[in-house]
Design brief:
By secondary structure, the protein is of the alpha+beta class. It has helices spanning 16-27, 43-50, 70-81, 92-103, 106-117, 122-130, 135-155, 160-181, 195-208, 219-224, 226-229, 236-249, and strands spanning 7-11, 32-36, 59-61, 66-68. It folds into 2 domains: 7-85, Glutaredoxin (3-Layer(aba) Sandwich); 96-249, Glutathione S-transferase Yfyf (Class Pi), Chain A, domain 2 (Up-down Bundle), CATH 1.20.1050. It is built from 12 helices and 4 strands; from the N terminus they run βαβαββαααααααααα. A 4-stranded mixed beta sheet has the order 2-1-3-4, with helices on both faces. α1 (16-27) links the parallel β1 and β2 (32-36). It is globular and about 50 Å long. Bound molecules: glutathione (GSH). Residues 12, 15-17, 55-58, 69-71, 103, 106, 110 line the site of glutathione. Glutathione binds next to α1, α3 and α5.
C-alpha cells in the first residue's frame, strides 16, 4: 500500500463480501488502502459513500466515484482497470453467473454463523466487532452489545427456522460446488483462476477458516465458531477453499492488517 493510494476500500475485517474485493484487488495488484470500519459506526460512511440508501460494505472509493456492492465493484474494476485476468472476456458470462450464485448465499452464511454463536460465543463476537474500533467505539459496542445483537437478529431475520433454511441453502450450493470439483478441476470456470473462484472461496471462508485470513484463521475465531461451523466439518469443498487460499491468495496488500 502506498500512503497516496488512489483507491480506498472500506470493509469490515470479518466480512466475506469484503474479502472477495480485498482478494480481487490484491490479485490485480491494485494500489489501494483498506479501512476497516466498526459495525454500527459504519452506517453514516456507507450511506454517504454508497449514495444508494444502503449501509453495506464493501465500498470502493475511487478518484471519480465511490462504488458500493461487490458485483458493482467488480464491474467498475473491469471497466476502469481492465482487462483483468480474473474476468476473461471469453468466459465472462459464466464467471459472473457463478459469482452471483455464491453472492446469493452470503447472507445465509452470516445468518447461520450468528445463529450458532449468539448467546454461545458473545465474548468472541464483541472482540470481532471491536478489533478496529477506537476506544470510545469499543466501549459503546460493549455496553450496547445486547441491543446491537437484537438489531442484528432482526436485520438478518435470525430465527431457528431461518437458520435451518440457511443451512439447507448453503448445503445445496456446497453440493453444487462439490459436483463441479468431482472431475478434479482446480478452478470453477475455464481452467483458469477467476472471480468465480474468488467469490466461492471468500463467501465460504468464514466456514472453511483458511489460516491466511486475519479473522477466520485466528484460533480465537475458530474456537468461537466451533459449534456453528461443525455441521459442515469434513465437506470436500471446504478443503478446496483452503487449498485455493494456500495456492492463490497471496499477501493482503491494503495495509489494514500489517
Ligand atoms: N450485496 C452486497 C452485500 C454486502 C453485505 O451484505 N455486507 C454486510 C457485511 S458481510 C454488511 O455490510 N452488513 C452491514 C449492513 O448491512 O449495514 C455486496 O455484494 O457487497
Amino acid at each position: 500500500m502506498s500512503p497516496n493510494a488512489s483507491l480506498t476500500l472500506y470493509t469490515f475485517a470479518m466480512s466475506h463480501y469484503s474479502e472477495k474485493i480485498r482478494w480481487t484487488l490484491d490479485h490485480i495488484k491494485a494500489d489501494y488502502r483498506e479501512v476497516c470500519l466498526t459495525p454500527v459506526f459504519h452506517i453514516p460512511k456507507a450511506l454517504h459513500l454508497g449514495g444508494r440508501g444502503q449501509t453495506t460494505l464493501p465500498v470502493l472509493q475511487t478518484p471519480q466515484v465511490s462504488v458500493q456492492d461487490s458485483p458493482r465493484i467488480i464491474d467498475w474494476l473491469v471497466q476502469n482497470r481492465g482487462p483483468i485476468d480474473l474476468v476473461p472476456p471469453s468466459i465472462a458470462p459464466e464467471v459472473r453467473a457463478v459469482e452471483k450464485s455464491f453472492d446469493a448465499i452470503g447472507k445465509d452464511v452470516a445468518r447461520f454463523l450468528y445463529a450458532g454463536s449468539f448467546g454461545v460465543a458473545d465474548a468472541h463476537i464483541v472482540k470481532l466487532w471491536t478489533d478496529h474500533a477506537t476506544p470510545g467505539q469499543a466501549a459503546f459496542i460493549r455496553i450496547a452489545y445486547p441491543a446491537i445483537r437484537w438489531g442484528f437478529r432482526r436485520k438478518l431475520n435470525i430465527t431457528q427456522a431461518s437458520a435451518t433454511r440457511a443451512h439447507q441453502r448453503i448445503s445445496e450450493v456446497m453440493a453444487w460446488l462439490e459436483a463441479q470439483l468431482a472431475d478434479g478441476r482446480r478452478f470453477l470456470v475455464g481452467n483458469t483462476f477467476t472471480v468465480a473462484d474468488i467469490t466461492a472461496a471468500s463467501l465460504l471462508a468464514p466456514i472453511a477458516c483458511p489460516s491466511q485470513h486475519p479473522v477466520y484463521g485466528d484460533p480465537a475465531y475458530q474456537a468461537g465458531m466451533v459449534a456453528a461451523t461443525a455441521p459442515f466439518n469434513g465437506r470436500p469443498c471446504l478443503a478446496w477453499v483452503r487449498n485455493l487460499y494456500d495456492t492463490q491468495r497471496g499477501a493482503m496488500r491494503g495495509g489494514a492488517f500489517e
